[in-house]
Amino acid sequence: MASSLYKFGGCINPSKIRPGNKTPFDSMLGMLGSTPILNINTLTERMNLFQGRALPEVFIKLESTNPGWSVKARPALHMIEQAEKRGDITKNTTIIESSSGNTAIAIAMVAAMKGYHFKPVVDVKMPQGKLDLLRIFGADVELVGDPTIPPDEQDMTQLKKDRRATVARLVEELGENAYSPNQYANPDNAGSHVLSTGPELLEQMGGDIDALILPISTGGQIDGIGRFVKEHMPSCTLIGTEPIGSTILASEPGDYYNAGSGLDYAPKPVEKMLADGLIDEGWTVPDAASFKAQRILAKTTGALMGPTTGMQLFAAYALALERPEFKRIAMVGCDDGRAYVPDAMAARQRGEMDTIEELEADLLAYSSMRGTRWQVERSGHIGDVAASA
Question: Which fold has domain 73-179?
Answer without folding.
Answer: Rossmann fold (3.40.50)
